[in-house]
Input
Amino acid sequence: MLRPSRAAFAFIFITVALDMVALGIIVPVLPKLVVAFEGGDVARAARIVGLFGFSWAAMQFLASPIVGAASDRFGRRPVVLLSNFGLGLDYLVMALAPSVSWLFAGRLISGITSSSYPTASAYIADVTHPDERAAKFGLMGAAFGLGFIIGPAVGGVLGDINLRLPFWVAGGLSLANAAYGYFILPESLPPEKRAHVPWHMANPLGSLSFLRAHSGLLVLGATYFLYYFAHEIYPTLFVLFGDFRYGWSASQLGLTLAFFGIGSMVASAFLIGPIVKRIGERNALLLGISLAATSSLVIALAYSGTLFLLSIPIASLGGLTSPSFMAIASRQASETEQGRLQGALGSLQGIAMMVSPLVLTEIFAVAIQRGGKPFAGVPFAFVTLVLCVALMLAARATRPRTA
Output
């Protein structure tokens, strides 16, 4: 069993890494393209980016439970392949976009098809022993890190040539990823372990009822919600923040994101597993949230690009949060429920990702309109407070029970 598990994990690792490369390529340029469409008005562009984020997450919210239930019923492989193919088409739509409206349509398509992560998480749960899942989830974080080393760096360089070019390259990569999966990716869930999931569970409210049916998951779910609300500040505001406060070009933004990717990959591949083994999943979760809060506070106070870079190693170790959480949560679901668990968590993440862009971009727009560059870090200070609440909830949810 060991060799097939390792081979299967390698396949999904490569699939996720290629997905993240394609996503990373467009990150440094999409907000800049919106600013260009809006004639350089950063505050207005920020609000549009927030609307984009809300709409993308709304599609995720609707699609994630369906994807989770479908993967439990029909297997993980077809879901991953359809997701990759859909993403490839989405990037091509955005490459051709003549207006903000077209970009908006592209984000809707992306939200529907960007559902491979919950299924990839369920895939990992399928092929690994429960005691190894935290380390494996950490290695999947390394796939994200790898994608955000290569993707933003390449996207930034391409964006300085032409703001449309990164979308063409991302589309080609996603379609190539779909082809790779079609010929290489094995199925991880055998037919005898597939569940006939009631389709009322494949809607957002039905999916969330799964959390209510498992004791201990509600408060843990609230922690998950707040963590991803806070984490959404990076994809939502990083480019606009770096451009407005520091005047960074697309290539500088891409390289800075690449540094984040390097830190994330190193932490995920070499540090998270050993740290979790040494201090335990609960302590690793609490430490990860604490470090995430510290990194956002550093960014809020960083009035130069050099000071901003100090947040990168702290944020990288904040990557302890997600794999520790996933390991703790996965222990409270059976083998046939892993897809529904990931779908329910995906729904919570989707709600966080709907609310967060609207709130954070509005805070950013108001702050820069009233105070200019010195107030650009206000959203990061707000996120620090959100993470402090998440830390208190995590401590409560994972508190050892006394007999």
Summary: DSSP finds 18 helices and no strands in the chain. The chain has a mean pLDDT of 83.
